[in-house]
User: Fold this.
Amino acid sequence: MGQMTGAEAMVRMLQLHGVKHIFGLCGDTSLPFYDALARLDHGMLHILTRDERSAAYMADGYARVSRRVGVCEGPSGGGATYLLPGIVEANESSIPVLGITTDIATTSRGRYALTELDQEALYRPLTKRTEVIDRADQLPEAVRRAFRAMTAGRPGAAHLGLPYDVQNGQLPEASVWADAELGGFPSYRTSPEKDKIKRAAAALARARMPMFVCGGGVVIANAEAELAALATLLGAPVATTVSGQGSLAEDHPLCLGVVGSNGGTLPTREALAQADLVVFVGCRAGSVTTERWRYPAQGTPVIHIDADPMVPGANYRTEVALVADAKLALSALLMELGKQNPGAGKKIVSEAKNRKFSGFRALAVKDDIPILPERIVAALHEILPRDATLVCDAGTPCPYFSAYYEFLEAGRHFISNRAHGALGYSMAAGVGAHFGRPGTKTVSVMGDGSFGFTAGELETIARLGVPLMMVVLSNSSYGWIKAGQKTGFDQRYFSVDFSRTDHARVAEAFGVRAFKVEKPEDLKRALVAAAEHGGPALVDILTQPLQEARAPVSEWVA
Ligand SMILES: Cc1ncc(C[n+]2csc(CCOP(=O)(O)OP(=O)(O)O)c2C)c(N)n1
Assistant:
C-alpha cells in the first residue's frame, strides 16, 4: 500500500476539500508543510502575508464572499498567538475559517523547546473544534472532523495543530479522502419542526404588522430569495443588523435598513417600534442590534429562527423558536402561509427612509473642511459599481456605511468584523474578499487608527498587485473613544489623540498608487481615479473628527 507523509496528506486533504487559496506566514516548524506545498501539484495559491493576524482576516473575508472555507496558517508560538484574533472573529461571526498552526515535535513536549505552547488549550474556547494531531495516521480524520465542524449547523472556525514530527511521519495514501461538499457552507442543513412552522405561520397570519430583523445568518444560509418572497407575501418590513446587510437589496420597497446603536437612526428605530410581531432570522439579538435589549421592546411577540439552539430565547421571550437553517425555515413558512393580504409595510419603510435620508443628503453636499463623513459615503456610492464589496472597520466607517450606503444587490457586499470590532481588519479582509470574488470591486474603508494596525500588508498588496481600493478616514485620533469621552465623560479627553500620518506617502513607499484629499471639491476625482486604477490604490481623506460629526450612533458603549 502506498504511503505519504503527514505534510503531504495535509496538502492533499485541503485540495480534496476544494481549497484554492491558503493565506499564511512561514516559520521553522512549518518547513515540511511548506516543502510539501512546494513539491506537490495541487492547484492551490499560497498568499504570503506579513502578519498571521492578516492571514486569518484574509481567510475570513475570503469565506464571507465565496461561501467556501477560508484557510490560514502560521507556525508555532508567536504564529499561533498572532493567528488567533482572526480565528476568534470568524468563529463568533459564524464564518468557517480553518487555522492551521504547525508545532514543535511531539517528542519535544515539556522540554522547554523554543515556541512550545499548549495550542489546544489556547484555541479550545475560541473555536468549534480544535485538535493538535499526535500521529500522522490520525491526520485525515482530524481534517475531516474540522471541515464538518466548520460548515455544519452554525458555521464557525476550527484549528488544527500540526507537530513537526507528524508532518514527517507516514500514513497510508488510502486513508486520504474527503467529502468535497464540506468545503462550502452551510453543509448538512437542518429542517424546522412541522408543528412549529404551523404555529409560526399562524402567528404571522394574525399579525397586523410583522417585521423581520435579520442578522448575518440570512446571507450565510443563502436565504435572500426566500426572505424577499416571504416579506413580499406579508408586506412586512425587513430591518437588518450591521452583519445582516445584504439580506434584502436596499432598494427593495420593504428594506428598512440597519437598526440598532451602530448605524441605526431614530426613524428606523421608530419604524421598528410599529411591529406587533418581530421575526429574528439568523440574528443573536445582541446589545448593538437591540440598543441593549430595548428595541424591539421587551414583550413584543417574537418568532426566532436560528441554526444555533442557544440563540432563541437568550434575549427575548420567544413565542416560537425555529432551530433550523434559515433557508429551509423561511421556505417552509412560505409554503405554509399560502396567499396573504400584505400589510402596510411599504408605507412605513418609505416614510422612515425619507426622514433618514433627508438629513443625510443635507450634510452630504456640504463643503466643510475637514470633509464630512456623509460626503464621503455619498461620493463612494455614486462612483462605485452596484455590486462592489465594502469592507469597513470599526470607528467612523462602520456606522456611516451601515446607515447610509445603500447596497443595491442582495448577498454579501458589506463586511465588518462585528463580533469584536478589532481595529485593523478591513485592509486584510479586503484582500481575502478580492481573492474570493475577483471579478468585482473590493473597497476597504478604515480609520487612521486601523491603518496603523495593518499598514505592513501594503507590501503584500503591492507584491501581489491586488486591485484593492483603500480609503483612510484620517482624523488623527481614536475618534470613537474620543466621542465616548465627549458624550459620557464631559469632554475630558484623555489619551485618544495621535499625530497625523501622511498615509498617501506611506502607501506610495510600498508601491501603491495613492491620493491625498483635503478639499471636498477634489474628493470625487480622487475616488474615481483610485477606483479606475487597475492595481492597488489608496485615498487618504482628511475627515471630520467623529466626536464632532452627527454620527448614526445612539450609544458609544454598546
Ligand atoms: C484592537 C482594538 N483595540 C481597541 C479598540 C477600541 N476602539 C474601538 S473604536 C476605536 C477608535 C478607532 O479609531 P480610528 O480607527 O482612527 O477610527 P475613528 O474612530 O477615528 O474613525 C478604538 C480604539 C478596538 N475596537 N480594537
Observations:
- The longest strand covers residues 97-103.
- The chain has a mean pLDDT of 97.
- The first helix runs from residue 6 to 16.
